[in-house]
Amino acid sequence: MQLINRQCRLAARPVGLPQPSDWTFADEAVADIGDGEFLVAVEYVSIDPAMRGWMNAARSYIPPVEIGAVMRAAAIGRVERSNHPDFPVGDHVSGAFGVQRYAVSDGRGVTKVDLDLASPAAHLGVLGLSGLTAYFGLLDIGKPRPGQTVVVSGAAGAVGSIAGQIARVHGCRTIGIAGGKAKCDWLVGDLGFDAAIDYKTEDVRRRLRDLAPDGVDVFFDNVGGDILDAVLVRLATHARVVISGAISQYNATEPVKGPANYLQLLVARASMTGFVIFDYAKRYAEGIDKLSEWLGSGDVRSQEDVVEATIDDFPDVLLRLFRGENTGKLVLALPR
Amino acid sequence: MQLINRQCRLAARPVGLPQPSDWTFADEAVADIGDGEFLVAVEYVSIDPAMRGWMNAARSYIPPVEIGAVMRAAAIGRVERSNHPDFPVGDHVSGAFGVQRYAVSDGRGVTKVDLDLASPAAHLGVLGLSGLTAYFGLLDIGKPRPGQTVVVSGAAGAVGSIAGQIARVHGCRTIGIAGGKAKCDWLVGDLGFDAAIDYKTEDVRRRLRDLAPDGVDVFFDNVGGDILDAVLVRLATHARVVISGAISQYNATEPVKGPANYLQLLVARASMTGFVIFDYAKRYAEGIDKLSEWLGSGDVRSQEDVVEATIDDFPDVLLRLFRGENTGKLVLALPR
Question: Is 0.90 exceeded by the ipTM?
């Protein structure tokens, strides 16, 4: 049977929010697999804010997606054909398979997925790069100590929701910043955050003064922009600001808004540190073990926002992230 | 004899560059000293960029100078009268005596000054808070390793000129950023910097690409603004940005220009850290020992820009800093 591989490719470098004209779609015949290779039918595509950065030509921690190339994406799929002894047909696997129906792999960078442990979407979220970003970013860079105050922005997102829960598990007072009452209620009511601030209707700076009168010890920032500036003026002495991302700035058509209050780092003797999760590859197993343990004990809850749609819907699903429409991990589930 | 204490007091909180109307002058009779007190005749006043921050009402690492109070300043003077056994008449002492002719002290925060070791101006500069800021900021926060590339902004200033020389002593490739050819020639020709960039006539970003093709490992920033942004895009992996100051922003009438390229901290897995020299008070002796040693061996040279003038000239002398007119440590020397 000749399989057809529907692909979403990058057609142009977006200015601002990605437009339909920034994408193109192609149908390719799936090639025969060689020795040591296997064919994956992609079932779940991870939708991540970082994707927007991969579309830019600027210097970054990873080369940009080339114009005309299949859009890069973490994904989970099922092995359909195999000439690789470690990846037999029927296995579920996770890897950077891209926004396409089929991917050929030689196994490098591919891990097996245990669907008895968690759903495919959870494997992309709490047990995937989102959870690992929260785990290593918060603990390794943020270094929270029990009793300290941890603030997380983008707190209802895939990374933020896990980061806040890890902070709670570590005995920290945890404050989430998110957009809208429903997300804030979910953070406090379902995920056990101590408090949440709705940046759409509340004055973040003033609320932080009330909620964290002794200052913020760790700020795990996924958002940047005005929210970063608001938290900088509330830093406690020797605070750590973890730069996980800056979703508010990724689609800016004007120059990025740098943190005008960055001199508060001096006032507070504080640090602001960036990190890239790929650097922790050798410690992924440690992170996944811990996250699995907390997931099993109920200390950490995972939430996925699974959108059942096609490869052609990917551009629309991606925009949901930037509109703040998702709660928890956003995943595109392809038809089987 | 009744001594008259001429004082420079803060009259108003400046907007932008301090204006004459932000200052007022007063003559006070010098009071009798009590038990355990001594009277200092101020001879040398340290002129520091940080003074501008002390004039603002904003939250900072030290309370603002109150309106109507004598302007805060580090200074060196001679003990004229004494009821304190440790500070006899004739000793030279260093302390936060303020912009005035006479100060009464009980000895707290006051240290003796050895004029056989270095000049009074050098005691305020390389052996004072400027040198200590360079020493602890570069070594403790920047953590340069031999062979790494260290960039210093405000490199011809009191702190920057010492920071760059300490980096050289530590076996680092050292690049200074300063304003004007004379300063740049001095950095390379006299202080042994490997290279200097004249930000007034050169493209800092492009020059850094040529001078530091493998990136900047430590950036010791005294300036902020566009120069900070230019260096951020040239950071090496795991670089450390030391926020020593931001003289380009202290007199801004518009909101501070935050570093638009701060997300390069993420790309480079880098950190940006602020510090306050007063936190190192218990280690000042260590720093002064080292700096004295390097001064004696000729590894570090000190340069002071000593302006002989009166208390009434202080406002003008302060403005020299913000016009970038000084090379090395700016000191106001009062008439004896």
Answer: yes
CA-based nearest residue in chain B for residue A278: B269
Min Cα separation B198/chain A (Å)? 24
Q: And the tokens for B51? A: 């003074």
Query: B115-118, long-range: CB within 8 Å, 24+ apart, which pairs?
Result: B117/B292, B118/B292, B118/B295, B118/B302
pLDDT recorded at residue B1: 72
Among B60, B265, B268, the residue with its CB nearest the CB of A272 is B265
The pLDDT tens digits of the residues spanning A126-176 come to: 999 999 999 999 999 999 999 999 999 999 999 999 999 999 999 999 999
Q: How far apart are CA B157 and CA B331, in angstroms?
A: 12
In terms of Cβ atoms closer than 10 Å to its own Cβ (0-12, 13-18, 19+), residue A229 is buried
Interface touch A258/B255, C-beta < 8 Å: no
* Nearest-by-CA chain A residue for B261: A258
DSSP B213-234: TT-EEEEEESS-HHHHHHHHTT
Interface of B with A (CB under 8 A): 59-61, 224, 229, 233, 243-246, 249, 255-276, 279
- B242 chain-A contacts, CB cut-off 8 A: none
Of B112, B255, B251, residue with least CA distance to A229: B255
Choose among B245, B267, B274: nearest Cβ to A274.
Answer: B267
Number of other CB atoms surrounding residue A195 within 10 Å: 19
pLDDT, position A252:
87
Contact across the interface for B61 and A274, Cβ inside 8 Å: no
Nearest partner of B212 among B162, B167, B273, judged by Cα:
B167
**pLDDT at A254 (0 to 100):** 85
For B148-187, the pLDDT digits (tens) are: 999 999 999 999 999 999 999 999 999 999 999 999 999 9
Q: How far apart are CA B217 and CA B105, in angstroms?
A: 44
CB pairs under 8 A between A and B: 107
Q: Is the pLDDT of residue B334 over 80?
A: yes
Confidence at residue A336, expressed as pLDDT on a 0 to 100 scale: 82
Q: Do A263 and B61 touch (CB under 8 A)?
A: no
Q: How confident is the model at residue B2 (pLDDT cuts 50, 70, 90)?
A: confident
